[in-house]
Sequence to fold (426 residues):
Amino acid sequence: MTRRKAARAIPIQPLAAQPAKLTESAESAESAMASGASGFRAPPPLSLYVHIPWCVRKCPYCDFNSHALRGRLPEEEYIAALIADLETALPLVRGRRVVSIFFGGGTPSLLSAAGIDTLLTAFRARLPLACDAEITLEANPGAVEAGKFAAFRDAGVNRLSLGAQSFDPDHLQALGRIHDADRARHAAALAAAHFGNFNLDLMYGLPGQSVARALADLEQALAFAPSHLSCYQLAIEPNTAFAAAPPALPDHDRRADMQEAIEARLGEAGFIHYETSAFARPGRQCRHNCNYWTFGDYLGIGAGAHGKLTRPAGSAWEVRRQMRWKQPKRYLTGAVGGEPLQEEFSVDAGDLPFEFMMNALRLNEGFDAALFEARTALPLTVVESILRRAENEGLLVRDAGRIAPTQRGQRFLNRLLEMFLPPPRP
Fold:
């Protein structure tokens, strides 16, 4: 039996040397922009990401910008910095409607409900918020209680994302989580009681895990009737505690078997596998993340937050990327002082095809072909030769105006995305 490559998360690791054929999209894109062959007709939908950088303890597998909390949580100071950060950014997004808000971390549930309420009130006072905006807050089972979940809901949060990761005590211990299995089940029950729309995060491919135990975790998650599940394979990321002392993980074939079993069980349970690691009940796809994956815009505020904004630049438009100061102390002083940015740059036209595809090809149903031009201001012809090659390799299919990865393309997503990489710059 041929084994399928186990999926893993992007980012893609750039190739050391790119073959000449991989330069085609970048050269075509630069030529199209220079000739004025296309242009943005309107900015894409706008989301707001709010980063809360503190955790009770840093997990050994985590490579996010999160910091173990030592001493008092500087909640009031951080809220003031977030509001000041947004004030500084307003000229870039003024008048644009926000379709979703996502509090990520770190552990956003460390903030008080009153603090979340203060932030949402400040956001509404400064930005037009869609009446049906999705407002998500990430929570850690080790940092919640019943009253807090109810208060988060009353403050305006309408979607909860709970980082359970596992319901197995051995696996939670191996992952270095601060909660045990009972706490995970208690938090999931609270999420179900207080939120009609909630996500559970699960990991698989864990140290000592079998296919049966991975499915047992999944069954426990399904018992709480979540509207959404995010199922991630554990990956050993650089600059983490696991990278310094890697645990023994199930072999490649066992991890692939887990992935196949999880996908099959969730399909039986009525979930749509709509993105590499995301499964949803019909109509419950995460709108905030879908905006990312369709190359929409997002303003990121908070320590280490990233953003992507499409905005006028003279007589034309440009796609700009931003990153806030990563260290919380540096961010606090910078944001209050009107200088929250650590880095900002305009995305070169030659990089746009890869950036678009790196997001949109994570969607299993793919994207409308017209979306490429709408989001990049480039004609689809700049990647036509690469699309044909991907089709010939069985990685991509084009049908009725849609472009989507095949089953093979989903399994070998890295290979598919590498085809769109721009050439290295001298």
